[in-house]
Amino acid sequence: MSSENPVQYGNVKASYFWDDGSGINGDTGAPASGEPMQEGLAASPSWPLGTEGYVEYNGKKAEFFIGDRGPGDPAEGCNVLLDLDGKTFAKLTGESWNDDSYTVTGGQGHIDVEYYITEWGDGAGTPGAPQPMSGSEVCDDAVSPVPASAKKDGGEDKKKSEGDQGQKQQPKDDAKDESAEQSADEGSGTGKGEDSEQQQAAPSGKDDGGDGSGQGLTAETAANDTSGIALAGDDLPMAAGLLTLAIVPALLVAFLFGRRRAATDYATEGGRHRADSLLTAEGLRETVQSVRDRLPSSWSEATSSANAYWTRVADRIRDRRTGSQGGE
Questions:
Q1: Region Disordered: start and end of each range (predicted)?
Q2: How many CB atoms lie within 10 A of CB 191?
Q3: What's this model's pTM, rounded to 2 decimal places?
Q4: CATH of 8-150, one of 2.40.40.10, 3.30.1330.60, 3.40.630.30, 1.20.120.1200
């Protein structure tokens, strides 16, 4: 019985009895459960018959099972709520049991004990807080939470759970440490790489031919070198646009004339009045050939226009540069 986890715990005042039908010392007859009077048989005013558990008193422990009813009047007012057999009572108090008088030496008739219910019986009675046989009240104060130390498996399971959590936490901590070290290494490598790139990108005073200040070129030289580029750059979008406007119409005109010529040729051959569609191989081939025949003249005109434009642009750049130098 004592190896099982308690289902209820509390503190009650206990007395003792020994009912074997002898009539000695207030004997009221054989136990109500039908079990013979014996060591370990206890009486409760309300708990089910067959209930098992144990009591503790002054560091001593004794098992019991409920096999009878009692105490009677002493249980009123939630006073005495458990009757232990005389022999068990004597062992808990360190006294002796007298088989002739059915009494315990020392004259002590009541003790305050801690009780632990390990299993409720299936006999008549009510589980839970004890109550007098009259049912006048329920003694809730006689029930307390089960101590963790009384749970046989609870302590071991708790230790095991804590150990498992510690083992799980340790790999996590190791992983965090490794991750932190790796991040630190990567950060260090990145910093070194950036410093190296900055050192490589930094200009050297010796290479510039200066005094180490990085100003080897004079302002005048830089201005002269960039003036022509700036002037030409301003005109580049306009030049590209004009060149496109010159070439595209030429190609379009050549294409239209090529189609017109092809249509005329088809109209004079064999009474046909429509040229082949561009979707056919023959029509596409003839149109391309016609455009190729007329393209040189159109291309020459476009090239001539472009050359004339770029000549004007070069003249403007030259004039601006000459004017700028004269102003200086």
A1: 122-220
A2: 10
A3: 0.49
A4: 2.40.40.10
